[in-house]
Structure formats: C-alpha cells, structure tokens
Write the structure tokens for this entry.
Amino acid sequence: MPPPGPRSCWDPSINAKAYYVFSFASFVAIGPFMNVYFYDSGLSKAQVGLIGALRPWVSAPAAFLWTALADRLDAHRLVLMATFVAAVAARMLLLLPRGFGGLLAVVLLAQAVGAPVGALADAAVMRLCKKDTEYGKFRLWGAVGWGAFSTVAGWLISHLGIRWAFYSHALLSVPCLFLGARLYDVPTAAEPGALAGAAPGASQLEPQGPRRGRSRSSSSSGSEAGDLDPLLAVKKSDTLDQFDVKQRAAGGPGAYPAGATAGSVEHGVREPGSVAEAGVVGGKRPWSEDLLLLLRRPKVVLFIWTALTMGYGFGTIDSFLFLYLEQLGASGTLMGLTLTITCAAEVPAFQLQDRLLDRYGVTRVLDLVQAVYVLRMALYACLPLMGNVLWVLPIELLHGVTFALGWGAGTVNCKQLAPPGLAATLQGTFQGLYFGLGYGLGSLVGGYLGSRLGWQGMFACSSAMMLCFWLLVMAARAAVTVWAARSAGTAAGTAYVELRQGERQEA
C-alpha cells in the first residue's frame, strides 16, 4: 500500500461529494422544467398531468428490480453507470419531435432506467462513512449543487430557450460518469474484513456502524448483548430478528440439524465446528431466501410503512403546494423563494443529522420527522388565517426536518437493517417507496381531496391522515415489542426445560 499523501481530487470522500454536486446540478437543470417543455410541445394540461402521475408508479418497481439485480450479480458499478447513461440518453430523446404517445413512452423509459441511480450511489457512499450517521455530511453537497445551479439553469432557459435545459443536463452529467465510476473503488473499514485482508465472503449479517455500549457474544447462541434495534425502541434480542430461528434451535418445528446454531444459520456466520462450516446446511443461503427473510422481519415491515408515510407527505406537498399558493395570491417570485429556502434548510439538517442520530437513534428521529410532517401540513391549512401568504417562508424551513433529516435517517436505517449482499436492494426499496409509491399516493389522494375539499381542506385532511399513519406505526411497534417479549419468555423456558432434562440424564 503506498504511503498516505496529500488529499487530492480523487480522495474517495471528495469524489463522493463532487458526485453529489454535479448529479444534483444536472437534474435541477431539467427536472423542474420538464412540464414547461411538455406544454411548449403542445401537450394539454390533462396529458401533462397523466405523465406526472405515471412517473412515480414506474420508478418504485424499477428501483427495486435494478438494485436487486446489482446485489444479486455483485455488479453495482456496472448497473449504476449503465442506468445513469441510459437515463441521460433517454431524456435527450425527448428533444426529438413526437406526439403525446411518444413523449409518454420516452419519459417512462427514462424513469425506469434512471430509478436505481440514487439508491446505488447512496449505497456506495454509505460504504465510505466511518460511521453510518455521517451520510448527511456527504449528501448535503447534493443540496449545494441543486441550489447553486438552479438560478443558472433558470437564466439559461430564459435567455437561450427551453432546449438548453436538456443541453445543460447532458453537459453536467459528463463529470458524473467519471466520479460515479469511482464510487465503488475503495473498500472501507465499514465492511468486515475489507481492510484486514479477510477471506472473500467471510462477512457477518450484523450491520456495521455506530454501536455505543454493545458487545457481540462469540458463543454459539448468537445472542447480541446491548444491541439497540434501529427501528424498534427496545433492545434487539434474538427474539426480534430470529424468534422462529430460536424456536427451531430450541427443538421446535423445523429445528436445525445437530450442531447448527441460530447465529450460524440465521446470520450466515461460519462458526468453527458448526454445521454451516462443515457445509451440512450450505453455509450461505440463496440470495432470494436472504431477501425473503429480510422483508419479513417486523422492523423492516415497519420501516417500509414509515417510508410510504414520508413519501406520501412529500408527494402531497410537492404536487400541490404551488397550486395552493397561487390560489392564495402568491407571486412567481415568492414561489421561487420557497424553493431557495427549502434547499438552504437541507444543508444544516444533513450536516447535523449524525449528532441527532447518535444521540436519539433512528426510531426517535423518524418519529420526529412524521410529527413535523403533521405540523407542516397543518400550518399550510392555517395560511389563510395568518393574514399574509408570506408566512409560507418560515414554514418551509421545516423542510429541513421532513425531507433532509427523514431522508438521511432512512438511508442510514437501510444500511443498519440490510445484511451483506442486500444493501443496495433495501436502499432501492426505500427510495422506490419514498419517491415512487408513496409520492404517487400523495399525488393521487391529494388531487382527489383537493377536488372535493379545496386545497386548504386537502392540507388539513392530509395532516390528520399523516397523524393516523404515524400513530399506526407506533402502535405496531408497541405490539411487536410485546410479542417479542412474550416470545422471548417462551423460547427461554423451552430451552431451560431441555437443559435441565439433559443434566438429569447425565447425572
């Protein structure tokens, strides 16, 4: 290994930050102006609305499938670069003259191939973090790139025409090819054995990251003392992740073969002398089985619901806030200023998120995010009562919590929940649910409520719905905690009885 030298532009952390700057700058050059281009191309409002409604429903399954393919083939760099280039090329095809059907097909194609890019990049950046909660210090540079180039993009389009949105997007995407290709270059200490010369495949399912006051037992029982569950507000004993595993290990239905342990089978850890080491149970399970085991874990199910809830809130606000402000008499300048404030609010939220996550944990931070979503929508509903639409500006500061803090906590939680080989898949699932299914539901339900209740009533109703969603998550979390505690007692009692019987037989 060469001796350490001065930091250069190819330092992995600088490379990741530069990637975020250019990738978000390239997207702000085209994303906010797509509908303008569609209108200029002769599409009706209904046609533009249909395109906008279909896009998130395509991205959700596409993000999952692409990231799952990258994990399955261990080809993250290849899938990242291929989908990035294909998405940019598909967007450039929109410049060719075509009718509604052609534009719709190309937009959905670009959405399908571009859906996994953000998830794969985030998964790569998480590998660079010395601790999981440092992700925000990388991601804030995306907000910098977005804010820095948004004004430039508007000036170019105003003076040179709407086609320059596409040209700027393509030009700013070129640096991303070189920066993105290096995101997966450097293994880090976050990967077990990556810097210690460990044998390939000798990794543990237990995610790496900030673990205060925890120790991992080396006993064959696979117990994890003091392991704080990333989503459930209880200690993660074996019963939360491995209740059925412990049942089988204790001799219940589907019991493991003699010598197999909960740790060796459930986590894929090849313990010396275990059946997994000897190859009796196959050592490492098939990738599809790992995926099914991951998706049926209670904490993952709760996290999926939380991602949907946050996406629903984001989609509601992003789709209808400007229509509401226009109804209240807001100028275009005021609407543009709200974007500037939301972008500025992201920077400190991303910068400080590691302190909040280290101190309070992912569960409490995600609870805070959902509570602030409830407050933010309620404040929108109260805007007509405040006497001046300018009050929307301080309300927009809450975007730093609802999006930046929520996005960062969700990304960190994906890293902590996912076993090796499924990190990108879970990132893709989270982002697909957030910007895909959740966002689409927010647009669909919000549009229906707005047509029936008006925009003020829609925001009031959406605030109440977000509160109900949040309460359901907390109730489910409490139920899982009680179930796990009872299951722990049952499993422990069974193991104790069998142990006593064995001692009597030996005596």
In short: The longest strand covers residues 215-216.
